[in-house]
From TrEMBL:
Gene3D superfamilies per the UniProt record, alphabetical: Metal-dependent hydrolases
Molecular-function annotations in GO: hydrolase activity
Required cofactor(s): Zn(2+)
Pfam families per record: A_deaminase
Gene assigned in the entry: add
PANTHER family: ADENINE DEAMINASE
InterPro entries: A_deaminase_dom, Ado/ade_deaminase, Metal_Hydrolase
EC number: 3.5.4.4
Domain Adenosine deaminase per the UniProt entry, residue ranges: 11-329
Lineage, top ranks: Bacteria, Pseudomonadati, Pseudomonadota, Alphaproteobacteria, Hyphomicrobiales
SUPFAM superfamilies to which the protein is assigned, alphabetical: Metallo-dependent hydrolases
Protein name according to UniProt: Adenosine deaminase
Keywords: Hydrolase, Metal-binding, Zinc
NCBIfam families membership: aden_deam
Primary enzyme class: hydrolase
Length: 329
């Protein structure tokens, strides 16, 4: 077994983290009060929901407190402050869904400028680097809307925005319908990832073949989650040959059987996939990078070699330039 302190202190890059899911409940409550946004429950109970779609609703509601450039800067700053302390975060690639924030009157360039302010501050204060991934919520964004989101990202190109992603409920937004948005992103020089085979859904709702669609139709460079792929030996064998990096998350409060995620991650590693460890929505799930690693290792019993493997995988799987990767290795 590895000491928890070693797991917390080993340097990490994080490739799967939604900015709206990182907000401290106290910050959400403070900003909601300032802006007169009604919340369903007090801060201590805010992050509770009956199911996956209920979780997504609270996520989108919390996002509504980010209204100014300063709010976006603060969100980046507070997450990096927490993750530096809890898990020695050194690099993070944040998902942000621009359409979550438009109801507040902020435009795309201003939200990106706010996050860029935060990135500059966390570089200075914590030595953390960060990039941004413009994300499409498949539950509420039509394929046409997804194309618009990519067009906006390309029209207001910012050096920190390096790719696109696809989140939300996979059972109502299968990957193939977003082919046009992905083709446009690739043509514009953006990298591509997508949430795929999430285990909140059954392998019938989020089937292993979604991996093949993400690979061949969306032409993804990376895959978020991936657990339901374990239901197909063929898909697992393909994924092993392909060598894409995966970004599963060790802890989620959406699954009540705690060891499930660690056991699925173990099987992904044993099948030879390139695996990284991430937090997804750390504040909302009541976790952090250090906690994710300690839970995973306490459940599986891996030694320090695996901790070093995950640490290095997170650098190799990142979308940093070679020179930045070299700095982190
Ligand atoms: N799954 C799908 N959509 C999401 C998630 C997730 O875990 N977190 C934030 N949006
Ligand atoms: Zn996610």
């Amino acid at each position: 077994a590895v000491a928890d302190d070693y797991l917390r202190r080993i340097p990490k890059a994080e490739l799967h983290c939604h900015i709206a899911g990182t907000l401290r409940a106290t910050t959400v409550a403070e900003l909601a009060k300032k802006y007169g946004l009604p919340l369903p429950r007090p801060a201590e109970q805010l992050y509770q929901w009956p199911n996956f779609d209920g979780f997504l609703e609270i996520l989108r509601l919390s996002a509504l407190v980010l209204r100014t450039r300063e709010d976006f800067s603060r969100a980046v700053y507070e997450y990096c402050e927490d993750a530096s302390r809890d898990g020695n975060l050194r690099h993070v690639e944040f998902f942000f869904n621009p359409d979550y924030f438009y109801p507040n009157g902020i435009d795309y360039p201003s939200m990106v400028a706010g996050m860029a302010d935060g990135v500059e501050r966390v570089g200075r204060d914590f030595g953390i680097s960060a990039r941004l991934i413009c994300c499409i919520d498949r539950s509420i964004n039509s394929p046409a809307k997804a194309v618009e989101i990519v067009e906006t990202a390309l029209a207001h190109r910012h050096e920190l925005v390096i790719g696109i992603g696809l989140d939300g409920n996979e059972s109502v937004g299968p990957p193939a319908i977003f082919a046009e948005a992905y083709a446009l992103a690739r043509k514009g020089g953006l990298r591509c990832t997508a949430h795929c085979c999430e285990d909140y859904l059954t392998p019938l709702e989020a089937p292993p073949t979604n991996y093949l669609i993400c690979r061949d139709v969306l032409r993804c460079d990376r895959i978020d989650h991936g657990y339901n792929m374990l239901a197909s030996d063929y898909v697992m064998a393909e994924a092993r040959k392909d060598g894409l990096y995966f970004t599963p998350c060790a802890w989620t409060s959406l699954l009540h059987n705690r060891p499930h995620r660690p056991q699925r991650i173990r099987r992904m590693v044993e099948a030879g996939l390139n695996v990284t460890i991430n937090t997804d929505d750390p504040a909302m799930f009541g976790t952090n990078l250090g906690h994710g690693f300690t839970t995973l290792f306490d459940t599986i019993g891996w030694g320090p070699d695996k901790a070093r493997m995950f640490s290095l995988n997170s650098v190799e799987g990142s979308w940093l330039d070679e020179s930045d990767k070299a700095r982190l290795r």
